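Quick start: what a row looks like.
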Amino acid sequence: IDQYQAEGVTQLEITIEGWSKNGLYGNQPEQFPVEKKLGGNKGLKELQEYAAGKGVNLYLKANYVKPYQDSNGVKASRDAVRGINREVLKQYVYYLSTRWNTDDYFYLMKPSVIAKRSNAELSKFQDLGVKGVQFEHFGSLLYSDEDNKSNTDRQLTEDTYVNALDNFRKGELNTAVDYGFAYTLGHVNRIDQVPLDSSQFVYTDRAIPFYQLVLHGLVPYTASPVNLYDDSRNQTLRALEYGALPSYELTYAPTSDLQRTMADRLFSSSLENWLAPSVQNYLALKEVYDSISNQQMTNHEQLQSKVFRTTYANGVSIIVNYNEQSVDVSGQTVEAFSYAVTGG
């Protein structure tokens, strides 16, 4: 927080992951107590108070849906959903590169367990004073339960998610989800990692921001972390084209500390490497996002090959150029891998 604010980044929203007992894959679906190595409840409350004093919104990521196989908070035969074979359903970690599962797997919790755990811990989040809670999987994972003793369908899982989101909002806590399935709309204050591309199936001509045309100006949404793309420049332009706020998933320790762990997807996360680029990105784009933040997206069009224009209700238009050379648009030059803002 101090390093960013010293560089002129004044509007920060931070979500902490892995703060629960035994860390990221520890005690879920229970979120409390707070991991002692991180200072426990006292240390987290001090951090929240410090962040609030600096004008920073602090969210905590909560996983009530998908605990790891070794979690101390799960009795699988009782708490986990079952597949069509009536056996406890296990979700293995699968690598596309090798087409092999690992030995690591996760359970999916019954809706009744999700409801019970989230309701029981609402007051604990309130006591910490955090701005909000990011509910992992609520906006991106829907499933049924084929257990003969407690058979449930996807509608019940959806209702469970929505009720939990509403309960936390009634408790004066903001809520956030990933991806943003439609049933979460109207129940969240932020959507993270919204889709910024199509399926890329062969019958698709090109992607259009239909989701964003509907949502922009009604609820803030962020793009997937810029630092986890092979081309961060391209991802930043994509976020700008679709009106999504840029985000970063960072660690204070070097990324190499995560080798041979289940968090190896964070292949480039060190704050030391990403502080300067993310600050530069913020300072360059802040005025642009300020001008469109509460505006309805009214049009999106392809002007040339790899050149797109997005227009908003107040007349602001953003032209992005994904080409390796500059292009001329209506007498205006847009540099390679860059953007231009007009109107408003």
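That is the whole record. The longest strand covers residues 297-304. The chain has one domain: 2-71+111-297.
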